Amino acid sequence: MFGLNGAPTWCITIKMRCQCCQRPFWSNDADVLLAIPQCLSIHHPVEPKHALSNHSLHLEKETTEVVDSLMLTYGNGEMCSRLLYNSINRSFLDRVTSYYSFHKANPKPIQVNKCIEKDGVYIKQHPPLGDTVRDMHNEASQSNNRWGTSEHDRHVREIQSVKCTGMFAQDHTFEACKNYRKPLGAKAVWDVAVGSAASVP
Fold this sequence. Notes:
Blueprint: E1 15-17, E2 24-26, H1 30-35, H2 38-41, H3 61-70, H4 76-105, H5 130-142, H6 151-160, E3 168-173, E4 189-194
Antiparallel strand pairs: 1-2, 3-4
Helix pairs in contact: 4-5
């Protein structure tokens, strides 16, 4: 489980089986967290909609709140991934600095043990890349929650309820052009929403 507070946290999960239908499920699955009372699931460090069973990692609850607020464009997935990597690096540097500065800050002559030498083994678990963060955010936004309406459906309804009267709204994106042939010479995709009373030159 990765977060913005430093090194990853290791979780222990168990496979459970329903006594009625004998259906197996994992203890950290989103369906389980949504089925139990909220007074119990609130102690789980992962937001229920982000407890995705098809990924080998989870993001902490505070981290998913940051990701949800930052994930406005497709490019923000890489930024969220870099934040997770940087939090691990900062935690490691803080520990090394604290270790080596202890002897200097302590006035008593205390023998400080040497730092553990690296034995050639490296940590194989690493934070998700930008594409994985984006995929996890999309899956979480389409999953159900306690209110029965997913974030994706709520956003679609908000967009559908916006009216454009007496003006027009425009937007452009450069990422869409990478899926088209280069000889066309397109630089960006431009879209315009025009209201019934708007006049466009």
